[in-house]
Automatic annotation (TrEMBL):
Pfam families: Myosin_head (PF00063)
Matching PANTHER family: MYOSIN, UNCONVENTIONAL MYOSIN IC
Homology family: Belongs to the TRAFAC class myosin-kinesin ATPase superfamily. Myosin family.
A single Gene Ontology CC term: cytoplasm
GO molecular function, one term: microfilament motor activity
Cited InterPro entries: Kinesin_motor_dom_sf (IPR036961), Myosin_head_motor_dom-like (IPR001609), P-loop_NTPase (IPR027417)
Annotated GO biological process: actin filament organization; actin filament-based movement; endocytosis
SUPFAM superfamilies in alphabetical order: P-loop containing nucleoside triphosphate hydrolases
Highest taxon, organism lineage: Eukaryota
Name of the protein: Unconventional myosin IC
Binding site for ATP: G14, E15, S16, G17, S18, G19, K20, T21
Residue span, Myosin motor domain: 1-90
Keywords: Actin-binding, ATP-binding, Motor protein, Myosin, Nucleotide-binding
Length: 90
């Protein structure tokens, strides 16, 4: 984002069992590391990371090809300022 000066989009797609859920977990962890350390920021980071297991508990199921198959789509909108501080996440 800083190099290009433009909004960025990440789309994770692939066949069943290809690792989309795991890739999204790594992306969330990376974003959480990038957004710094300040009072409210730490709360946002914690909520961001902790929301994943809750969503998986209600939206994942065992299938023939995958023991933890996501049965839902996930859309996340994040806004950062020029200092790469997270302003909000929806």
């Amino acid at each position: 984002m800083m190099n290009e000066g433009r909004d960025q989009c990440v789309l994770i797609s692939g066949e069943s069992g290809s690792g989309k859920t795991e890739a999204s977990k790594y992306l969330l962890q990376y974003l959480a590391q990038c957004i710094g350390h300040a009072g409210k920021v730490d709360v946002v980071k914690d909520r961001l990371i902790q929301s994943n297991p809750v969503l998986e508990a209600f939206g994942n199921a065992k299938t023939n090809r995958n023991d933890n198959s996501s049965r839902f789509g996930k859309y996340m909108d994040s806004e950062f300022d020029h200092a790469v501080s997270c302003l909000h996440i929806n």
